[in-house]
Amino acid sequence: MKNNKSLASTVVILFVIVGLMQVGTLFFSFREIQELSNHNIEGAYSSIYEYQNRMRGIEVYAFLSNMIELTAYVTFLCWFYNAYANLKKAGINYVSHSNSYAVWAWIIPILNLFKSFQLTKEVVDKSQNRIMDLDEGYLPQNLNKSINTCWIMVVSHFILSIGIFIWGMNKNTFEAGILIMQLGGVLNIVMILITLLLAFIVYKVSKIEEHLFQIVNNS
């Protein structure tokens, strides 16, 4: 088996950072909405230079946030690939898919929004079953509620995003723009919850995986 502990720790840290960056994005959005709600669009800024400086700052922040999100996502995929591959290395020969398929289920989740979470459950369940085969005193953990909740939030975020995009396509009024920003804030809140819950799931799964790693290597 491959020790996946350090990669899991990196994923957890990156997801927490992504969540905190999303809080910052939410703050910027709230401030923007507040200013635009209290003024007309021409009077929201004292000068064009103030507006340009604000926009540059937001663009830099958004770029950094996107780069961190991309790094977190790629690191997560590497961790999940190793976690799924470790099932076979631990002597579990009845896994349902190949390692590559397990990763692609996360890369293109729209093909089957629940498949990636099913595979996560498979890692949890089969790892713990293998641990119990080698350690009769082991008490299994139930992560189904956390995984199912995360899945519900991911699907909700996807549906809300599509709905807001379709609704806002032909809305060119000032009031509609503010409403779209407010709905975007709701999406940010959902994304914060998703990233933090994913960090929790990765942390718990990594603990199970670490236990399996120790038992298999000592057996």
Automatic annotation (TrEMBL):
InterPro entries: DUF4328. Keywords: Membrane, Transmembrane, Transmembrane helix. It comes from the Bacteria. The chain crosses the membrane at residues 6-30, 60-82, 150-170, 176-203. Residues 63-205 form the DUF4328 domain. This is DUF4328 domain-containing protein. It comes from Myroides marinus.
